[in-house]
């Protein structure tokens, strides 16, 4: 009992400390102090002569001495405090300290991070002391007013004794110079006017923000997934029957409500679950296999590592910081998003018991005995993990999926037999009271805040209520599909929000394509911050199919240009390249530049595929195959998960896929290569698959007004003067290249050769020569035509060419298109 009280006391204390009202209260108090001091200080400027005698005579006793009257507008306390700060401490620069108190107050009210405040404090303190010395030195003898305060006067009298008056001036100039070099990082290469502007900008920004992002983030650390603990099984476990309370474990961070059942002790609820494995999707392979071959570190091919230290760069000892392009940019704060309410939802213990009994009973009906069952309660579903009795075949349980679903009279039962790496069988049952996962809580989570990923996506929460953060840069592309109204648009918004909350506009650019015209248009406001589009494009969000084709091809050109840059810099990928650039080892005059990640978002690509077919599919496939190393990543979504939309080519290049609820099992197979998405319950319930592993998630929910708030917050800030423009895509050039090839130009044996290559998925000229009995030259010409049309990749020496088309139906469509074009 005492223990329970102690526990609840501790809990109360913890809740108290976590209570967000406390920092707000503290913030309000600080603001009050700042206003009070400002008024007292201003009053001091007018009343100091009259009050000073009394304050100095009474010292701190002034506060209790009723007899002493003062003129300060804020009474004896005002007179005492202003005299203390201005006369004894820092003189006029004391106002800077009041400014700091005010800033800290605002910071606490907004519950913003504290670290920038510590930086600001150090800077302001140094600045205050420096200014106090300067004022005492320059004007000390001219006025009675303590311009530099006691500190300024004291330092000046000592320093001028040691260094002489002129020495003090030099010292002050030296300190200012050091500050400009180390803290303000002013580039002295520019004209005097430019240097002056930089200095003014620096100080105005420091006062505005209280922080200045300076250094590039350290390279992302990769956390190895902890190995799942081996599980011991009892030698001959007793099998369970309905109603048994033994061997039924519950794992839930949510509150349990009781309906006629005995109280569950707190420690039982907090019982740790063995790890189901790290759900963070980390792909250890740093480069796509194909991309690996593209960067040839060859000294003869114009790699300019010799540029590592150029004349211009020798002066730049500081690393280059891309965020300085927009130094005043402030990332959106969490208060723009609605706070999720987790408190109202509870999980009914009776519901758990009833489901458990139903599962055991149903399995017993089919003569399947189990020895243990445990429940893990997630936001929308509860996972019942069962350990079957020795000798029970897993496939038998899997086959009973529909029967179990029927007997539980619930929709959305998904059976995972076995749970990979666990040796148990999972049965997911939807909760009667699903819990919403708010965008704010996932962005607020430590996992997201500490995520050191290139493109972190806060997707939602797993069955264990853990926030799942995936790195789009490692995925490296994402296909999102699901029937209409199941949460896809919300999911796309949560993906974009994750990037906007984590990244500076210099680090990531979004290319948005929205044929439906209604989903992404609010993001147009981010035009000069986060969006990338074609020169001359009036609407930054692309909606028309012809423009989409242009923009996709332009991205391919951007990709090729980036590969050229990487090759010149002898870098294997964007990360290595940017590291070299930041370390000033690449010369901007040779075309090198900091490369932001580019994320292409297509909301609804079904319409595009239907209207433009190959013209859209081919550049998407090309980008998906090759763009990873140069930092271009694709997120493509569709509400029509059928094979003619999610084609073989698309699928082969998008190993990471998200499936929302679909209506038929066949659709689930189209998206994930397995069933399961048809069993989801909608409203953001989703399956994330990354090359085999499937994780069920409750997607983070972000509402349109919240998205608009965030967009306005960013959009109202100063952006780049020039938006990020993609390379021009010239249709004439296209005509001169692959487009110049008309149907009439094709070799008579072209179609047969293409079919053969696609059937065999083997791009070898000698095979075409041998199997179709063609001469070497003719077979070579046909291969070149196939390359021009994007059916095979370029020649790779003695190795066969890469085949870019995966099935014959696609080929037929492709050739029909060509024939129709004439
Ligand atoms: N993560 C979520 N949590 C809770 N509810 C959600 C979630 N995602 C979506 N919903 C609910 O489902 C509704 C439909 O979601 P959304 O608009 O994202 O569907 P959609 O698949 O994009 O539909 P469409 O394809 O027609 O645009 C939302 O208005 C919301 O009520």
Automatic annotation (TrEMBL):
Residues bound to ATP: 482-489
Gene3D superfamilies listed in its UniProt record: 3.30.980.40, P-loop containing nucleotide triphosphate hydrolases, Winged helix-like DNA-binding domain superfamily/Winged helix DNA-binding domain
Transmembrane segments: 25-46, 84-106, 118-139, 159-182
Biased composition (Basic and acidic residues): 246-256
Region (Disordered): 210-256
Major localization listed first in the record, in broad terms: membrane
Database matches in PROSITE patterns: FTSK (PS50901)
Protein source organism: Neolewinella litorea
Xref: SMART domains: Ftsk_gamma (SM00843)
Gene Ontology CC annotation, any one: plasma membrane
Subcellular location: Cell membrane
Membership in a protein family: Belongs to the FtsK/SpoIIIE/SftA family.
Keyword Hydrolase: no
All residue ranges annotated as the FtsK domain in the record: 464-669
Protein name from the UniProt record: DNA translocase FtsK
Pfam families linked: FtsK_4TM, FtsK_alpha, FtsK_gamma, FtsK_SpoIIIE
Any GO BP: chromosome segregation
MF-aspect GO terms: ATP binding; DNA binding
């Amino acid at each position: 009992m005492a223990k329970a009280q102690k526990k609840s006391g501790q809990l109360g204390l913890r809740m108290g400390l976590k209570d967000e009202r406390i920092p707000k209260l503290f913030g309000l108090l600080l603001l009050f102090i700042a206003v009070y001091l400002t008024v007292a200080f201003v009053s001091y400027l007018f009343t100091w002569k009259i009050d000073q005698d009394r304050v100095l005579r009474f010292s701190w006793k002034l506060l209790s001495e009723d007899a002493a009257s003062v003129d300060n507008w804020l009474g004896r306390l005002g007179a005492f405090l202003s005299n203390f700060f201005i006369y004894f401490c820092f003189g006029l620069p004391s106002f800077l300290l009041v400014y700091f108190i005010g800033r800290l107050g605002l910071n606490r009210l907004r519950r913003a991070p504290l670290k920038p405040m510590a930086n600001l404090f150090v800077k302001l303190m140094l600045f205050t002391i420096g200014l106090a010395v300067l004022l005492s030195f320059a004007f000390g003898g001219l006025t009675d007013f303590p311009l530099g305060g006691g500190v300024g006067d004291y330092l000046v009298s000592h320093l001028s004794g040691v260094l002489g008056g002129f020495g003090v001036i030099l010292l002050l100039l030296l300190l200012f110079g050091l500050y400009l070099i180390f803290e303000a990082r002013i580039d002295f290469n520019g004209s005097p006017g430019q240097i002056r502007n930089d200095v003014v900008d620096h100080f105005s920004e420091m006062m505005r923000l209280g922080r200045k992002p300076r250094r590039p983030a350290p390279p992302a650390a990769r956390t190895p997934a902890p190995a799942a603990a081996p599980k011991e099984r009892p030698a001959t476990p007793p099998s369970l029957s309905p109603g048994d309370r033994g061997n039924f474990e519950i794992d839930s961070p949510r509150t349990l409500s009781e309906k006629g059942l005995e109280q569950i002790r707190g420690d039982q609820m907090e019982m740790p679950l063995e790890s189901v494995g790290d759900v963070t999707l980390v792909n250890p392979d740093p480069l796509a296999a194909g991309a690996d071959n593209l960067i040839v570190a060859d000294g003869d091919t114009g790699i300019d590592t010799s540029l590592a230290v150029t004349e211009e760069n020798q002066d730049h000892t500081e690393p280059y910081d891309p965020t300085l392009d927009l130094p005043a940019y402030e990332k959106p704060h969490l208060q723009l998003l609605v706070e999720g309410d987790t408190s109202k939802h509870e999980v009914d213990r009776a519901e758990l018991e009833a489901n458990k009994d139903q599962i055991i009973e149903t399995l017993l009906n089919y003569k399947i005995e189990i020895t243990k069952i445990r429940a893990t309660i997630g936001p929308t579903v509860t996972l019942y993990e069962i350990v079957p009795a020795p000798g029970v075949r897993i496939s038998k349980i899997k086959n009973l999926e529909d029967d179990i679903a029927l007997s539980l009279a619930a929709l959305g039962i998904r059976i995972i037999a076995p749970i990979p790496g666990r040796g148990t069988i999972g049965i997911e049952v939807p909760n009667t009271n699903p819990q919403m996962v708010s965008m704010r809580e996932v962005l607020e989570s430590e996992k997201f805040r500490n995520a050191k990923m290139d493109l972190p996506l806060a997707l939602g929460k797993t069955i264990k209520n853990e926030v799942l953060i995936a790195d789009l840069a490692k995925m490296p592309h994402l296909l999102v599909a699901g029937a209409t109204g199941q949460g896809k648009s919300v999911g796309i918004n949560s993906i974009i929000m994750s990037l906007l909350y984590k990244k500076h506009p210099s680090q990531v650019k979004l290319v948005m394509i929205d044929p439906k015209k209604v989903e992404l248009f609010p993001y147009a406001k981010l035009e000069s911050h986060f969006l990338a589009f074609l020169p001359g494009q009036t609407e930054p969000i692309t909606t028309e199919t012809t423009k989409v084709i242009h923009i996709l091809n332009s991205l391919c050109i951007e990709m090729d240009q980036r590969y050229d840059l990487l090759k010149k810099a002898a870098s294997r990928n964007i990360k290595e390249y940017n590291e070299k650039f930041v370390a000033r080892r690449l010369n901007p005059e040779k075309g090198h530049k900091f490369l932001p990640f580019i994320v292409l978002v297509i909301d609804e690509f079904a319409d595009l595929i239907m209207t433009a077919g190959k013209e859209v599919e081919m550049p998407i496939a090309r980008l998906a195959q090759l763009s990873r190393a140069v930092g271009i990543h694709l997120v493509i979504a569709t509400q029509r998960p059928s094979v003619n939309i999610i084609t073989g080519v698309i699928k082969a290049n998008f190993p990471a896929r998200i499936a929302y609820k679909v209506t038929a099992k066949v659709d689930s197979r189209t998206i994930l290569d397995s069933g399961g998405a048809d069993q989801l319950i909608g409203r953001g319930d989703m399956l994330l698959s990354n090359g085999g592993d499937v994780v069920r998630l409750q997607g983070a929910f972000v509402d349109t007004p919240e998205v608009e708030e965030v967009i306005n917050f960013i959009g109202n800030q100063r952006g780049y003067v020039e938006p990020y423009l993609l390379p021009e895509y010239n249709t004439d050039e296209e005509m001169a290249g692959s487009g110049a090839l008309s149907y009439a130009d094709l070799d008579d044996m072209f179609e047969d050769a293409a079919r053969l290559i696609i059937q065999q998925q083997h791009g070898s000229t000698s095979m075409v020569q041998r199997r179709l009995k063609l001469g070497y030259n003719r077979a070579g010409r046909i291969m070149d035509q196939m390359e021009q049309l994007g059916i095979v990749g370029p020649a790779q020496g003695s190795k066969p060419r890469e085949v870019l088309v995966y099935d014959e139906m696609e080929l037929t469509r492709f050739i029909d298109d060509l024939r129709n074009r004439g």
